């Protein structure tokens, strides 16, 4: 378990998200299955909260990264900023990478990126070995 120091306001807002009530179910599914599909209404917290669940469960504490793909550049940037703010962590820890821009460092634990960035990485490392978990957000797009 990795502790996160969230502000009381953020913690209160998180409690209103439907996905928070499913944290145990999500984490058990991730632990027991190589692939997990999570479906939920828009705004239920899938994009911002699932990476936080994984981080707190230690999926980025042993050198691996939690990767999240987004179909659009603006989503990759804004979601990295949102999650960093919610977790009260640096933009170097919660980072983004888009085609010609990014703030990924050696400190990065959660990386939001466009689909194209991940496809480029597959060309160099087919097993994507630096990732412990990869989330394909908005996979239907």
TrEMBL record:
<dbReference type="GO" id="GO:0003723">
    <property type="term" value="F:RNA binding"/>
</dbReference>
<dbReference type="GO" id="GO:0016787">
    <property type="term" value="F:hydrolase activity"/>
</dbReference>
<dbReference type="GO" id="GO:0003724">
    <property type="term" value="F:RNA helicase activity"/>
</dbReference>
<protein>
    <recommendedName>
        <fullName>RNA helicase</fullName>
        <ecNumber>3.6.4.13</ecNumber>
    </recommendedName>
</protein>
<keyword id="KW-0347">Helicase</keyword>
<dbReference type="GO" id="GO:0005524">
    <property type="term" value="F:ATP binding"/>
</dbReference>
<dbReference type="Pfam" id="PF00270">
    <property type="entry name" value="DEAD"/>
</dbReference>
<keyword id="KW-0067">ATP-binding</keyword>
<dbReference type="GO" id="GO:0005730">
    <property type="term" value="C:nucleolus"/>
</dbReference>
<dbReference type="InterPro" id="IPR011545">
    <property type="entry name" value="DEAD/DEAH_box_helicase_dom"/>
</dbReference>
<dbReference type="GO" id="GO:0000462">
    <property type="term" value="P:maturation of SSU-rRNA from tricistronic rRNA transcript (SSU-rRNA, 5.8S rRNA, LSU-rRNA)"/>
</dbReference>
<keyword id="KW-0378">Hydrolase</keyword>
<feature type="domain" description="Helicase ATP-binding">
    <location>
        <begin position="27"/>
        <end position="141"/>
    </location>
</feature>
<comment type="similarity">
    <text>Belongs to the DEAD box helicase family. DEAH subfamily.</text>
</comment>
<dbReference type="InterPro" id="IPR014001">
    <property type="entry name" value="Helicase_ATP-bd"/>
</dbReference>
<dbReference type="InterPro" id="IPR002464">
    <property type="entry name" value="DNA/RNA_helicase_DEAH_CS"/>
</dbReference>
<dbReference type="InterPro" id="IPR027417">
    <property type="entry name" value="P-loop_NTPase"/>
</dbReference>
<keyword id="KW-0547">Nucleotide-binding</keyword>
